[in-house]
Design brief:
alpha+beta, 4-stranded antiparallel β-sheet, about 55% helix
């Protein structure tokens, strides 16, 4: 502020000097110059004072305008995000309602069509493994027999032959048959079969193989109920957090599951990561590498027998069973060889045929 006043005083002095020393000749020229310069300085002083404040006010007004536009834009984008989230929630709820309905229909009226439709929904949402399907205990506790459920489409067929989607219901028997053979032997649920009929046929097949002692413990209705429980949990886990991390491959004893994430427990989360069970050829290379590196045999055995000791909170028998199943299932699950599987998950539910209408015979007309 002081230097602005100084400019003004200098301007006044230059104006006053010519007036005080008025005369002729060259002096009058310098007097004129002094008056002009003084006038310029006198006018410049207020401008120098006003200009920065004027710029500050303009900048402030522009900033306020920009802030207002920014806030408007943020509100607009926030509204769009809220609308998108609401639409997404509505979509999830809609699909969730469809999934829940399909499972409820399957449990209340199990047949080829309801079971296939529920599995199609699971295929669509990746709630179960899309190649291995979902495998369910056929007995309570630590099972000796499991049943694999998959609804699949063949990837190849003979020329001129239409390959239909099929419902795979393969029994997986963990006890060797008297002839020394292990199961599974692939079985399919026929379109015309009821749940009781397909269950009876599967059990008859196993009994004929000498496994009556195992099949006597099987409750087929409870197996379908467990399938419904597994699918409900699989769908819920896909829609929210805090359930299972991976999609379901196999249901184990109470609370245990094999999933794409590894060995999981409902209350403990992922107990062993799936990557701990590499394909068998990778495991063989790992042992060979250990031998070549000079590691002692004890460390190799220790490597191969990792996780044998059950967690403190787990039942030892259940852990032994689940770990054995993980060692049987995960090496094949982790194998990525690029080959096309013989069947892929079907995403189209089967269409239940309309009931045939009875046609009344035409009345017999007696002609006279």
């Amino acid at each position: 502020m002081g230097w602005v006043i100084g400019i003004g005083v200098a301007g006044l002095a230059l104006i006053a000097w010519p007036l005080a020393t008025a005369g002729d000749g060259l002096a009058s020229v310098w007097q004129s110059v002094g008056v002009n310069v003084g006038t310029a300085l006198l006018l410049a002083a207020p401008l120098v004072y006003i200009e920065p404040r004027f710029k500050t006010r303009i900048a402030k007004a522009a900033a306020e305008g920009a802030d207002s536009k920014y806030e408007t834009r943020v509100e607009e984008l926030t509204g769009r995000v809220d609308d998108l989230q609401a639409s997404t929630r509505e979509l999830f709820e809609r699909y969730g309602a469809v999934e829940d309905q399909k499972v409820a229909e399957m449990v209340s009226r199990p047949d080829f069509y309801t079971v296939s439709s529920a599995l199609v929904e699971a295929n669509k949402s990746h709630a179960i493994d899309r190649i291995l399907g979902v495998t369910i205990p056929a007995v309570g506790g630590i099972p000796e027999i499991l049943v694999r459920f998959r609804y699949m489409s063949p990837t190849s067929a003979r020329p001129g032959y239409h390959a239909h989607d099929f419902l795979d219901v393969t029994p997986v028997v963990l006890t060797p048959a008297p002839n020394g053979h292990f199961w599974p032997v692939e079985e399919r649920w026929r379109v015309e079969e009821s749940a009781d009929q397909v269950g009876a046929r599967l059990m008859k097949t196993l009994q004929d193989a000498g496994l009556k002692s195992v099949t006597d413990r099987v409750d087929w209705k409870s197996t379908i109920d467990r399938l419904g429980t597994a699918l409900d949990l699989a769908f819920e886990s896909k829609r929210s957090d805090g359930m299972l991390v991976g999609h379901i491959i196999e249901m184990g004893p109470e609370g245990w599951f094999l999933t794409s994430a590894g060995i999981e427990h409902l209350e403990q989360g992922v107990v062993v990561d799936v990557k701990e069970f590499p394909p068998k050829w990778e495991g063989a290379l790992g042992v060979a590498g250990a031998l070549l590196s000079g590691r002692p045999p004890e460390s190799i055995d220790e490597h191969l027998n990792r996780f044998d000791e059950s967690p403190e909170w787990a039942d030892s028998d259940e852990w032994k069973y689940v770990l054995g199943r993980a060692r049987a299932v995960f090496p094949g699950f982790n194998k990525k060889d690029g080959t096309i599987p013989p069947a892929l998950p079907s995403l189209v539910p089967p269409t239940r045929p309309e009931p045939k209408r009875s046609v009344s015979p035409a009345p017999h007309v007696i002609r006279h």
